From TrEMBL:
Organism phylogeny: Bacteria, Bacillati, Actinomycetota, Actinomycetes, Kitasatosporales
InterPro entries for the chain: TerD (IPR003325)
Matches recorded under CDD domains: TerD_like
Species for this entry: Streptomyces jeddahensis
Name of the featured protein: Tellurium resistance protein
Length: 247
């Protein structure tokens, strides 16, 4: 498989995430797994959302130091801004998903190469958009769990596009919103200043049970390195985003 120039230019509004959950489950090193099946959440559309933010100190340096000296108590209040503000337009995190179906079909859903997938046909995984600015809606992948019997395994990953800050400057989070039950959160909060990609979470069909597992494995390369790490066996080539398509 190779991929080429391309990006998602629109936003999909045809999908719904199901009932909103007021509670959440955070997957950690000590508690890395949760069963969607046992949670009664293995049907409908699973929404997987990427969002991120940055500290203002990473963006504007010390230009606010004078203000902090005038208000010393602010030294204990780190400034945080959402990544869609004007100061951080150079940040470009992308979400993608490697998939393997029960019939042996393998591939990727991602912005690069316009591999947006399909929700009601194989691979039953669809990308809603490519968000360059980390807006509150972020980037979202949908998985049609009504076809769970056709899905063998999924690997959701995040990568940093060229000439953007490293993960240690970007506070990213991937949240899974099942059609029923609590949301599932995975924070990318480990220090990996030189990493370019991260395998975030896997979803595996184990004898009919859908198990979500926290991965959070950083690598210094891109999709091909994640592929080798998890044994997907795809063919990869270099991809670029169209500058004319920047929003």
């Amino acid at each position: 498989m190779s991929f080429w120039d391309g990006m998602w230019r629109g936003r999909s509004t045809q999908f719904e995430s199901g009932s909103a959950a007021t509670n959440s489950i955070e997957l950690t090193k000590r508690n890395p797994t949760v069963s969607l099946t046992k949670q009664g959440a293995a049907t409908g559309n699973l929404r997987i959302n990427l969002s991120w933010r940055m500290r203002t100190s990473d963006i504007i340096g010390k230009q606010r130091s004078g203000s902090r000296l005038r208000h010393p108590f602010k030294l204990f209040q780190p400034d945080v801004v959402q990544a869609h503000t004007q100061g951080v337009v150079n940040v470009d995190l992308d979400i993608g998903c490697l998939y393997e179906l029960m019939d042996g079909d393998k591939g990727v859903v991602q912005p690069l190469g316009s591999f947006f997938g399909a929700l009601n046909a194989p691979p039953f995984v669809k990308l809603s958009g490519d968000d360059r600015f980390g807006s509150p809606s972020g980037e979202t992948i949908y998985v049609n769990l009504d076809h769970r019997e056709s899905i063998k395994r999924l690997l959701v990953f995040v990568y940093i596009y060229d000439q953007t800050p490293a993960f240690d400057r970007t506070h990213a989070k991937v949240t899974l919103y099942p059609s029923n039950g609590p949301r599932i959160e995975i924070n990318l909060d480990e220090r990996a200043p030189q990493a370019r990609s991260c395998a975030v979470v896997s979803i595996e069909n184990i004898k009919g049970e859908l198990v979500v597992r926290r991965e959070v494995k950083f690598v210094y390369g891109f999709q091909a390195e994640l592929d080798r790490l998890y044994g997907w066996g795809l063919q990869w080539g270099r991809g670029y985003k169209s500058k004319a398509g920047r929003r």
